[in-house]
Specification:
Elements: H1 3-12, E1 18-19, E2 30-38, E3 41-52, E4 58-66, H2 68-73, E5 77-87, E6 90-101, E7 107-114, E8 119-124, E9 127-132, E10 138-139, H3 143-152, E11 157-164, E12 167-183, E13 186-195, E14 198-203, E15 209-216, E16 221-229
Parallel strand pairs: 10-11
Antiparallel strand pairs: 1-6, 2-3, 2-16, 3-4, 4-5, 5-6, 6-7, 7-8, 8-9, 11-12, 12-13, 13-14, 14-15, 15-16
């Protein structure tokens, strides 16, 4: 599995200062593992965990890596981490960090949110750029927590301003129907959500945890499935 492919799956799973869900939803800590497949072949796994620090900071980590025979030839790894706080049910991102390793050179990416200056600083390939923040801006990992809350609140069409490198980009989601999904933890009814060519399922019974994701490209299908939750 190439690093771009692993990176794509890792970024796809990101599909989980803004506002919490309309009902004041806050995600509960969890540790979940997902299998990663390309055209039906398992090529890796993703470990995701959310913890709450003693000072009240939320930290979401996403670690994607190749496994099995694929790992013998391509030891790819993508670590992403997002830190944010809640203030009166409003979300303020603090920092986003990503480290991609593999056969090519390592890539480090970092975003630092300065709400006093209203600036987000982006570090990529040794270059720092600054972008003016807009109301509700989040990073591309932690906005999942807000998305889960907004789906829980019954919203059908959702748009977020996401800080990504040297720009603020709109991420648009449409909530569809619900259906049963088979996972490593059992069968559960999940709400289907779509963003572009990516479709994923969130399980209300399990605190709107991501249980399945599928992305269709021109010549490939990327998929991820919940295997276990600790």
């Amino acid at each position: 599995m190439s690093r771009p492919a692993l990176l794509l799956l890792s970024l796809c799973l990101l599909l989980l200062s803004g506002m919490a869900g309309a009902d004041g939803y806050r995600p509960q800590p969890f540790h979940a593992r997902y299998s990663v497949h390309v055209n039906g072949l398992k090529v890796g796994e993703i470990d995701r965990n959310l913890r709450i620090e003693a000072d009240g900071r939320y930290v979401l980590e996403n670690l994607a890596y190749t496994t099995g025979l694929v790992a013998l030839f391509k030891k790819d790894r993508a670590l992403e981490r997002s830190t944010w706080v809640y203030n009166d049910d409003h979300v303020k991102p603090i920092e986003y960090f990503a480290h991609y390793t593999g056969r090519a050179k390592d890539v480090i990416e970092r975003l630092d949110f300065d709400w006093q200056r209203n600036i987000v600083s982006s570090l990529r390939d040794g270059k720092i750029t600054e972008v003016t923040l807009v109301p509700g801006a989040m990073d591309k990992l932690m906005h999942q927590a807000v998305l889960r809350g907004d789906v829980a609140a019954g919203m059908q069409h959702i748009e977020y301003p996401i800080a990504d490198r040297d720009d603020i980009k709109p991420y648009v989601y449409d909530v569809l129907d619900s259906e049963e999904v088979v996972t490593g933890r059992g069968t559960v009814r999940a709400i289907k959500v779509r963003k572009g060519t990516t479709t994923f399922w969130l399980a209300p019974e399990w605190d709107y945890l991501l249980v399945k994701l599928v992305q269709e490209n021109d010549d490939s299908t990327y998929a991820s499935y919940l295997q276990a939750e600790k």
